[in-house]
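Hi all, long-time lurker, first post. I run a small reading group and we've been trying to get comfortable going from sequence to structure in the token notation. Rather than ask abstract questions, I figured I'd post a concrete chain and ask someone more experienced to write out its structure so we can walk through it together at our next meeting. Sequence below, copied exactly:
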Amino acid sequence: MKRIGWFTTARGPGSYGLFKAIISNIESGELDARLSFVFINRDIKGNEYRMKIIQMAEERGIPVIILPSDAFMPDLKARDVEAWRNAYGRELRDRISPYGMDFGVLAGYMLIVDPQTCHEHVLINLHPALPDTYKGTWKEIVTRVAKSSDHAYGATVHLCSPILDCGDAIAYDSFELDELRKRTPREELPDAIRAKEVAREIPLLMESIRLLVNEDITVREGTLLDRQGKRLASPLDLSDRITALTGEK
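-- Answer (accepted) --
Happy to help. Here is the structure in token form:
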């Protein structure tokens, strides 16, 4: 049974939806895994989604670690953000060390991970763009895609790296945009593209986690390997699988 560490800022419904999905997949037996801990980098501050995630975790005996990054060594952050990131990473590693994990999942985790944590732990992240295309926040990316002539859009699950959104890609999901462009008013297109991507990102992340849990893909010294132990030549295209899971035609 694989041990998974769950990292989230738990800011809104997207993070909550991802957490509900991993709990459901584990409890149904779809994933032979358990959550070792939930790490949240914000105080609760009355946020209903953080409260729901914490409640769900505590009801299941899953340890919850809260280390607010916005209140962590603010003077150092103002002077040297890289030194601050490394200091926060040291504290994070110290907090999670009693629990152990085979890999971690950044699920709505709104913080760049420091290099040493990326080196010591296998971490995966969901990025709202196809491999080797756009970088930035989902809002920035969707706006650019809507203005582009791109025929497809989607999301990628990749290894976490010290350089933002540059880790090796594990798997991706792609869907066509042409029909969506035809039937959607221009001013509504960014929201329509985002809505379709969001509907598909939960199954994409769950299927990518399944690849690691079942050891169809493994990570050795930062390199992605297939079941035969060969270096993964390219990320797996899960588009057809995601379409089937979402019931799209």
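A couple of things your group might point at:
The two ends are 35 Å apart (CA to CA).
The mean pLDDT is 94.
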